[in-house]
Specification:
By secondary structure, this protein is mainly α. It is 58% helix and 0% strand.
Length: 184
C-alpha cells in the first residue's frame, strides 16, 4: 500500500520527504480498508474546513399586488373641491375608529401632505358652509384645486370668527386635528 497523504498540498514541505506518523500504521496494517479508514479519519480531523464563499445576493423587493379595486382607489385624484370635501368627510368618519391620523390616511391610501394641503377646503365646508359656497360660486372653471384650497385658507385666516370656530371644532373632534404652518 502506498502511503496516503494526509496533509494539504500547501502544508506539505516540497524539499523534505513525506513524513507522517500515520503512514507507518497504514503500512503495518494488512487490511487496506482499515488503513484507509484510519487515514481518512485523520484527514477529516486534521484538515481545516474550506472557507465558505460569501455570496452577495441582491434582494428583489416586490410589492404584493393589491386587488384591482384598491389599485384604482389609490390612483384616483380629486378633480373638484366637492371631491375634497367628500374625502375629508370620509376621513372624519374613519379617524375615530383608527385612533391615529396615520392609520386613517393609510386606510384611504392618502399621503399626509396631500390631506394637509387641501384640508382647508374640507374644514371650511364643514364648519362654515355659507362661506365655502360663496368661494365655490366665485371659482373660475380652469382653476386648480390647490389654488382653491389656498383661497379657502386665506378666508379662514382672514376672519377671526371663522378661525376660532374651526379651532374649537378641532378641539372637540368635529374636525380633523390637522395643524398647518402659516403658508399652505
Amino acid at each position: 500500500i502506498q502511503p496516503f497523504c494526509c496533509l494539504h498540498p500547501a502544508e506539505q514541505p516540497k524539499d523534505k520527504p513525506f513524513n507522517d506518523r500515520f503512514s507507518s500504521k497504514a503500512s503495518e496494517n494488512s487490511d487496506s480498508s482499515s488503513a484507509f479508514s484510519s487515514v481518512s479519519s485523520v484527514w477529516s480531523s486534521s484538515s481545516s474546513s474550506p472557507k465558505k464563499r460569501k455570496h452577495k445576493y441582491k434582494k428583489k423587493h416586490s410589492r404584493a399586488k393589491k386587488p384591482k379595486k384598491e389599485q384604482k382607489k389609490l390612483r384616483q385624484r380629486v378633480q373638484t373641491p366637492n371631491d375634497i370635501v367628500q374625502r375629508y368627510k370620509s376621513l372624519l368618519k374613519t379617524f375615530p375608529k383608527m385612533k391615529t391620523m396615520t392609520k386613517a390616511f393609510q386606510k384611504h391610501g392618502l399621503d399626509r401632505n396631500t390631506v394637509v394641503s387641501t384640508s382647508s377646503v374640507g374644514e371650511l365646508a364643514v364648519a362654515v358652509p355659507n362661506v365655502y359656497q360663496e368661494l365655490l360660486s366665485n371659482r373660475s372653471s380652469g382653476e386648480m384645486v390647490l389654488a382653491f384650497a389656498k383661497q379657502c385658507e386665506a378666508a379662514i385666516q382672514g376672519s377671526d370668527e371663522v378661525k376660532n370656530k374651526i379651532e374649537s371644532m378641532k378641539a372637540t373632534g368635529t374636525l380633523l386635528p390637522i395643524r398647518r404652518g402659516k403658508s399652505v
